[in-house]
Amino acid sequence: MDLSLYTYLKNSQRVPIVRLTMRKDETIIRCPFCGDSTKSNQHAHLFIHNEPPYKFFCHLCESSGYGNTLLRRLDLDNPDLILKINSAYEKMSSQYNIKFGGSSILSGSKRSFRLFPEKFSEVELRKIAYFNSRLNVTMSNKDINLFRYILNLEDFLNHNGFKRENLVAKLSDADIAYLNENYAMFLTTSGTDIICRAMTNNLDPKSKFKRYYRLSLTPNLEDISCYTLKNEIDVSKSVHNIYLTEGIWDIIGVYYMRDRQMSDSDVYLASNGKGYLKSLQYITNLGLLNANISIYSDSDVRLADYRRFLQHSLLCKFNNVNIYYNQNYGYKDFGVSKDLINLSPPEILTL
């Protein structure tokens, strides 16, 4: 445990709330990314792990990262602390590169994964049938790569050189069989995680796997776990179209709703619980600064919520942001077939 960052924030007089958890293993402050709770200025939702490089996560807007990013956002400068953070980060990165065979494995965009199965057994055919039934479509062989859809977990791990003893998530034979039986699985853009979504409501209540499960393959040092439909983007285009949702099924549903339209200026992206702010920062890091942004929202997230979540996003401040909802009664999102989507007129977000 290292309380250097906690002590510095506490003594800075620039951060109004700085407190420790009962175990003192985390520091809690108000989130500087979303502004935190509007109900009370005493509520704080950003938790910082008290160990360099001080990984943080906001339980309100889901912003995350490491201590140097947080200090920049707070406009604080402590050379000794930043040196400690960078040193810890480089050490962690070096250890992971040695264990997992070099930096290329830490970036999904630099590594080619084999997704097409060795054979189409009952496991694979059941996954395809579920996909087709949920969206009322017919999946082609090319769609397996387009959606990064994993039809057989054991097959995927074996053919892509993942040794189970080296995975971040520890899996037994029974675990793999259970996931294969009950979950639809998608590989994230970074290639570091598999997002598992239950295909049934009849899960074993004693299982450690819940309806939504993130299976970590390798350490994600950049903390980018978003999901994109596979596409070659032309960064030289003057304007790009960003289609953004919370979940994977939602962004695939939007793709089919738009009649599978995709050009080299289109990005289909799901934030996967990492928050829209993190996803938009990912877009910014790609150099796509001039964009038409369309958010296809869950029905329980309103315009005021987006205004609070995205107030610090430069991409949203300087571009058009349209919020859409599925107005079909009984369906709160877009992870359904096209005929079950009644698209609302856009609500325009201004920051």
* Helical percentage: 25-40%
Oligomer state equals single chain
CATH topology of the largest domain: Dna Topoisomerase Vi A Subunit, Chain: A, domain 2
Task: Report the count of strand segments.
Answer: 15
**End-to-end C-alpha gap:** 39 Å
**SS field, number of helical segments:** 11
Mean pLDDT figure = 86
Overall 3D shape: globular
Question: How does the SSE layout of this entry go?
Answer:
Elements: H1 4-12, E1 18-20, E2 26-29, E3 46-49, E4 56-58, E5 64-65, H2 67-73, H3 79-100, H4 122-135, H5 141-146, E6 149-150, H6 153-159, H7 173-182, E7 183-187, E8 193-198, E9 212-216, E10 227-228, E11 240-245, H8 248-257, E12 266-270, H9 276-285, E13 291-297, H10 303-309, H11 314-317, E14 320-325, E15 347-349
Parallel strand pairs: 11-12, 11-13, 13-14
Antiparallel strand pairs: 1-2, 2-3, 3-4, 4-5, 6-7, 7-8, 8-9, 10-12, 14-15
Structural summary, described in words:
The chain is of the alpha+beta class. It folds into 3 domains: 4-100, no CATH class; 110-216, no CATH class; 227-349, Dna Topoisomerase Vi A Subunit, Chain: A, domain 2 (3-Layer(aba) Sandwich). 30% of the residues lie in helices and 18% in strands. The protein contains 11 helices and 15 strands. Strands 10-12-11-13-14-15 form a 6-stranded mixed sheet, sandwiched between helices. Strands 1-2-3-4-5 form a 5-stranded antiparallel sheet, with helices on one face. It starts with a helix and ends with a strand. The model is unreliable at 96-109 (pLDDT under 50).
